[in-house]
Structure to design on (69 residues):
C-alpha cells in the first residue's frame, strides 16, 4: 500500500463524519505523509497502522469529543 491508497481507504471509512471533522482528519494524515516524505512513506504507514483502524479510532475520538460538549 502507498500513500494514495492509504488516504483513499481512510477517506472511505471517514465519509460519515461531519465535513469539518472529516476535513480535519484528512488534513492531519495528509500532513503526516508530507512531513515523512516519499522516502519514509512505508515507515509512516507502519507508524499510523491500517487506515481502517485509524479511521475507527478517529470516529471514536470525535464521538467522545462531541458527547462531552
Amino acid at each position: 500500500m502507498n500513500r494514495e491508497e492509504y488516504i483513499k481507504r481512510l477517506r472511505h471509512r471517514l465519509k460519515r463524519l461531519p465535513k469539518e471533522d472529516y476535513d480535519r482528519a484528512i488534513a492531519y494524515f495528509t500532513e503526516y505523509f508530507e512531513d515523512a516524505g516519499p522516502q519514509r512513506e512505508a515507515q509512516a504507514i507502519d507508524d499510523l497502522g491500517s487506515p481502517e483502524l485509524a479511521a475507527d479510532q478517529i470516529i471514536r475520538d470525535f464521538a467522545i469529543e462531541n458527547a462531552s460538549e
